[in-house]
Design goal:
Elements: H1 2-8, H2 62-86, E1 90-95, H3 97-100, H4 105-117, E2 121-126, H5 129-138, E3 145-146, E4 149-150, H6 154-175, E5 199-202, E6 206-210, E7 213-214, E8 217-218, E9 222-228, H7 230-238, E10 241-244, E11 248-250, E12 256-259, H8 261-271, E13 276-281, E14 295-297, H9 298-307, H10 313-331, E15 372-373, E16 377-378, H11 394-399, H12 405-416, E17 421-426, H13 432-438, E18 445-448, E19 455-457, H14 463-475, H15 484-489, E20 494-499, E21 502-512, E22 517-525, H16 534-548, E23 553-558, H17 562-566, E24 571-573, H18 580-583, E25 593-598
Helix pairs in contact: 5-6, 9-12
GO cellular component, one term: cytoplasm
InterPro entries: AceGlu_kinase-like_sf, Acyl_CoA_acyltransferase, Asp/Glu/Uridylate_kinase, GNAT_dom, NAGS_kin, NH2A_AcTrfase
Keywords: Acyltransferase, Amino-acid biosynthesis, Arginine biosynthesis, Transferase
Amino acid sequence: MAASLAAAASSSARFIAAGEASPARPWAAAARVPCVARRHRRPAAGVRCGGARAPGGGVLPEEAEAEEGGRFVGWFREAWPYIRGHRGSTFVVVVSGEVVAGPHLDGILQDISLLHGLGIKFVLVPGTHVQIDKLLAERGKKAKYAGRYRITDSDSLEAAMEAAGRIRLTIEAKLSPGPPMLNLRRHGVNGRWHEIADNVASGNFLGAKRRGVAGGIDYGFTGEVKKIDVSRIRERLDRDSIVVVSNMGYSSAGEVLNCNTYEVATACALAIEADKLICIVDGQIFDEHGRVNRFMSIEEADMLIRTRAKQSEIAANYVKVVDEEDINHVRNLPMKQDSEHGLNGRSHINGYTDSEHGLNGRSHINGYTASFRNGVGFNNGNGLSGEQGFAIGGEERLSRSNGYLSELAAAAYVCHGGVQRVHIVDGTVGGSLLLELFTRDGVGTMIARDMYEGTRMAREEDLSGIRKIIHPLEESGVLVRRTDKELLEALQSFIVVDRDGSIIACAALFPYLEDKSGEVAAIAVSEECRGQGQGDKLLDYVEKKALSLGLEKLFLLTTRTADWFVRRGFKECSIESLPAVRRKRIDLSRGSKYYMKWLQATEIGHVAVNGFAMR
């Protein structure tokens, strides 16, 4: 089911162009904007009297109703691991001004209410710039920007306060009702049903200071984030409230200041140590083939931003803060720590090592880690060109001349600071937030700081490390014995996880292109690293590589590890299901069992940086 959901999720905006019409997503709410085409869409929920009704009023065949029910049950079961995994997590969600001012906000808030009911804690940061500009235009005033910031004069401040107030009240009103009571009555009258409305908390959580005069420009009442009231936010989250943080900050002098929405969101995510930052925008990120890019490592995002530094002020500012902090960090490092920070003599280009994808086990790039300190701001007040935090906006973002590069820069910045995942999701697509969180590959773009970290194709110098890991498993009979010669010949099919120069895990993928299948073999993790998810990471990497090769299924032979693979979607099959050329080489005396997994037909998100279309 997740495969059909992911396959149905398609493009809605180019990396450069935004706001194009988007195809429908399955399971979209009936109240959402009509879609061009629908696949496997459930009818709107309602009261049923007798059988299910067809659009013309007739009763649908029982087979069709059963199929519909089967799809729902299948989706629910596949979503179960994600439901459990996300429960208790804290997500900061920044909703772009374009989405807030558009027709899709109701659906997004409905999904946030649903997710909150499943145990996810939310901090919402709504964008206001579209409504501020609209109010100024209605009053015969012109919005003014300098770089990434708005110049907030008295007229702009009045419009900003009005827009922020309206948006806050709208969000509170939309979240207050909770789920429809009509759908619950068939389960009996229960007083608890009347207590399930979402509690929304807002207040003066944001401390700010005037931006002042920078570069000869007086920014007026524009503020920079100085303090997030973490204790009060956490207190309200623990009381099961959805917290709304306005971009209107309060200074120590009692002034109201207009802060940049993304600066507020990044501050919140870092200060409360959120599990995710989710950026809901009005489009998607595509690769050069027109496919939605599902995944980018922090290294890939960093490299992509650097390639655009000459065309984008925001990208240039990102590079500047990362490189400046890198210099300060390296200067302050004791020499004995050089190897721990990746400064081990290997060649570096912009901080990247010569290992594939630059993944050498470090937790940050160039030694830089974004940080937010309450009462001081970002990086002890030494942020971008002496500014606080990471703001995106201004004419560059409004024109979308560089597409969603602004959001990508904010995502990479926050990942540096310790937020493990940032998702850029198209809010104009019905149900996109649910699909992003409850299907394996999602429908947006995920930027991650640790996924596949250190994972690469094996090299000849890895032979001894691989041998060290698989030898105990060969001795116990779990793996087939391989001579050094056989291992060397198969080395180009091996994938390894490298941590600080040591191989801690390995796996092999042997493709059978004629059969569009691949054999998974020799999955092994060093004893000291077991129980940390390395095996899952390797298998996921193998599956994505198989998809990139055009393979449709994976198979394996095992004697003692069947349970592990069954939990990950493999099902027992007959020997006849394997490619004929492989069957001829099977040692039947081992009595191996055969398992197969069909891969999900979805877009491949892990694409080299220079493969992005910057149109």
